[in-house]
Amino acid sequence: MSAAAKGTSRRPNIVVIMADQLAPHFTGAYGHQVAKTPHMDALAARGMRFDAAYCNAPLCAPSRFAFMSGQLISRIAAYDNASEFRATVPTFAHYLSALGYRTCLSGKMHFVGPDQKHGFQDRVTTDIYPSDFAWTPDWEAPDERIDKWYHNMQTVKESGCAIATFQTDYDDEVEFAARRWLIDRARDRAAGQEAPLCMVASFIHPHDPYVARPEWWDLYSDDEIELPEVLPLADHDPFSRRLMDGIEASYVPLSRDEVIRARRAYLANVSYFDSKIGALVKTLDETGELDNTVVIVTADHGDMLGERGLWYKMNFFEHSARVPLIMAGPGVVQGAAANACSLIDLLPSFLEIAGADESVLGEPVDGRSLMPLARGEADPQDEAISEYCAEMTAWPVFMIRRGDLKYIHCDGDPPQLYDLSVDPGERVNRVEDPDYACRARMFAEELAGRWDGEKLRADIIATQRSRRRLHAAMEAAGGESWDYNPPRDASQEYVRNHMDWTVAAARYRYPPLKETDK
């Protein structure tokens, strides 16, 4: 029986299960007719599903830094996948640790820089991507491809089925380490340690490469895979055309079979990720903690997966910028929230779950707590702000989603305004529509007041120059890597000569034997 069921007053645990590059459109919980996501569906059936949740940057590292800090990327200089996440930026892991939570990261967070924990007391796996400045873009040469790490169409062409990939190796390790950490905390509680926990289990799937293990691939068939809706190249906005050039989609053709194979593998990997949700929820249940745990399922950004002819992310259309966000647990009612929100709203939400308020903050945050919506209450706020300052552009790109309207701006490009209530596919730019003239003007004025695009661009280019020089120097000197190496002392694990094996067996056994059973 969980602590909540026993009537104790221990604060709720927080467990975040995070996918990489998961668009909500491709999950059963959000209405996809083919996707098999029973564990995500079960959480949504007993919790709150947020139907207009967005990332704050449609790229891995900056999105995650915004999620961790509750701040927009322009505030913390988290521009791209090689931006340092400064150790001076407080995260929800710092705050929750200070509030008495035991905190843990298992899996990917793409921290760049020498600080590879950012407030987590325990980090039980390494990361899957480099932690240095190797992936720094160059806005002074925006048309140059970095073939070593830029996305391209070869990734789509190589989609399919395999027994193992570096991504399945990684996610299986993340699951095992997360489950073991949860069981260790149950052992601690059995020994009288009552600290609540916050764990982030962050998986790489369904991020490309789109390659799935056979048991997940076989859940689907080619004839049930829908083809994406593709726009003619001439109908794309200028930024989308630059993005298509950057990922080679504008000049490397894909066959029908290649597109189907990639989308089938993606759905298979969505189901694979869903199995990880099931494993962690089962562990919480087995250790008696499920009733006292707020479980959050989300992602860092989505995947276009061929829609409009675009792939991957790096834009503000719905498949790229929207993320799943499902919350279930104590204090959360069953329902669906229509208000626009974003990942920066999770830090204030976690503080409210922990019983704290903004007085604990070390820096201002840009988000608001989603707990009123999670409780089924009205929330006057209905907006999400997002920024893109990475590869395949030479100017910052901004998005404001408020109510049903989405406004996108990049200096030098025509602005875009979409009314999602009547145009969910974002096919009609309303910025020149007389019926939307007043709202388009208000968005333009707000955007000009929020951001100084010229200054932000200059700051970004300055950091890019600095990071490229530093990376060259680090490579030349053969300096110490920042890649995280989880500490492990095998001499203190399992049974060793200096231990009484009966004591070790008793410590590892969960639930522990009762006195009457000894």
UniProtKB/TrEMBL annotation:
Superkingdom classification of source: Bacteria
Molecular-function GO terms, alphabetical: metal ion binding; sulfuric ester hydrolase activity
Keyword Hydrolase: yes
Domain Choline sulfatase enzyme C-terminal: 459-510
CDD domains assigned to the protein according to its UniProt record, in alphabetical order: choline-sulfatase
Gene3D superfamilies, A to Z: Alkaline Phosphatase, subunit A
Pfam families associated with the record: Choline_sulf_C, Sulfatase
Domain annotation Sulfatase N-terminal: ranges: 12-356
Keywords of the record: Hydrolase, Metal-binding
GO (cellular component) term, any one: cytoplasm
Keyword Iron on entry: no
Family: Belongs to the sulfatase family.
Protein name, as recorded: Sulfatase
Species whose genome carries this gene: Roseovarius nubinhibens (strain ATCC BAA-591 / DSM 15170 / ISM)
